[in-house]
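Side project, low priority. Logging it here so it doesn't get lost.
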Amino acid sequence: MTVAPRDGASAQTTFEVLNSIVINLLEPAGEHKLRGNTAVREERYDDAKQDYEQGLKLVCECALALNRVMEAPRIQSEADLGAVEERDKNRVKSIQYELDALRLALVGNLSLVHLRLGDWHAAIAHADIVLR
């Protein structure tokens, strides 16, 4: 999926748009935490920055995964199904879609919270759970 270009700008993928939104929300807090902490030496700054960017990427991938689950084709309506067994299968599939969406949203939000607090390793771990 791409976003329509504005004012002659090139089209952006959903990932790029989500990444820019997350960066705008979280970058000031993360940068301040890295630069303001005297315990973080200059040579470790690059490693921390790389972890931060990896966390942002994984959070965006979580958002994309959630989007795919939410846009999954809807199951055939119960009125169209003749057998009780088919209606039960339909209900199970619908519940599974909802559980997947809730799981992705929860883990994605946990990742965002950890990124906001500057705990990139925890953010990466939570996002990694979703992407397995």
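Brief comment: The longest strand covers residues 2-3.
Revisit when time allows.
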